[in-house]
Amino acid sequence: MTTYLTDDWAAAAEAAFADLPSVPGATARLVHLIGGGPAKETRYHQVLTDGQVTELAMGDDPAADLSVAVAYKDVAAAADGFDVPVGFMQGRAKVVGSTGLLMQLLPVLESPEYRAALATLAAQTDY
After folding, report:
1. Which residues on adjacent β-strands are paired with residue 42?
2. What's the predicted TM-score (pTM) here?
3. Which end of the chain is more exposed for a tag (fewer CB within 10 A), N or C?
4. CATH of domain 2-118
């Protein structure tokens, strides 16, 4: 098990997403803000390049295209990993930036491969 929102967790997340298929045009830099947890607010960033996660690390990314804010309790309660598009539609995730860009990422974020990687990561994570 790896502790959520640590450098070890970020490395496990990057490994879990390593084999995503290419999706041309699904490219963005995202910052995830997780609020209400042990550290009150923690950030990590994720870079998607043509549908593949090319970077995932703790900390901010000043060049981010999108920021996604989610409550720690919502992430911890998601047994198969927190689904950003579903959370956005339910009002449990706030997106700052182009929602059009978020829609361009849907083929990745809703793919069976991405969902399987989320579930694998969630099973390895201690919240």
Report:
1. 34
2. 0.92
3. N
4. 3.30.1050.10
